[in-house]
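## retry 2 of 3
previous attempt timed out at serialization; input unchanged, resubmitting
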Amino acid sequence: MFATLLGSLPRPPLDDAASVDALVEAAVRAQEAAGLEPITDGGLRDDAGLVDAWRATARLTDRAVKQVVEGPYTFGRAHDGGAAERTAATFTRAATLNTALRELAAAGCPLIEIHEPASATIGADLVERALFREAHLRLLDGVAGTHLSLAVTGGSADEAGIETVLAAPYASLAVDLIAGPDNWRLVAVAPGGLGIVCGALPTAAGSEDGPELLLWAAGYAASTGGRGSDRVGLATASSLAHLAWGVAVRKLERLGEAARLADRPLDERLGAFDPRAVSSRSAALGRVEAPPSRRPDQGQDPT
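## retry succeeded, writing output
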């Protein structure tokens, strides 16, 4: 089972004069050390010149590198003006990105992740649903030779419906299951051949980041639609950019640990669990305590 970052990282603690390439290299090394793949640039580059940006990051590692792109619907929602202007901005963004995605695929980028946090605002509005569908159909038109993934973070997009969210031919869906727990409804009705990336690692600084929730999420996603574990991955619920660097790195480590644990025999997985999760009755009676290494304040370097 793979693990990946869903969102950005904070700025690494390098000198103020450090170049963007140096910052990205620090982000790449942190992901490598945690066992993550595909790797990202940690959101430390801007999205101008996507092919050059992806190539620059890919040169830093022998692991697969994905390119993260803000989607046209989210871009349009930030556009000032009336409905007509927003629609035009959305479709212009889709057309511009379509060209960039084709270029990324031709350059060998193995995975392109389209982030649409604004999808959580669509709801039951038929006009918004139609705008989202059309924007993504235009975005992906003719793009081939790469894995295309849609990421829903920051809330739930389930009210928009699977027919809206997956109108375009995406190969996988990444969902924030912490800020948007109702995204499980999308997972439950998604086609079994679609990959699911479970954004189940909390992004709060003091959260309990043990493997129990992550492995439960992966197991449930694998059980839906006969999907199987080969089509499931683990991720942070969303961005870690608001955290101190040391806290973010520890979360990456916990994420990688959970992904490796997912492939181990059942007895090894259970042995790594907090006893309170394995025996809720004993926990309720006060017979077990969280191990010291699993308390929320452990490993959270404030730097």
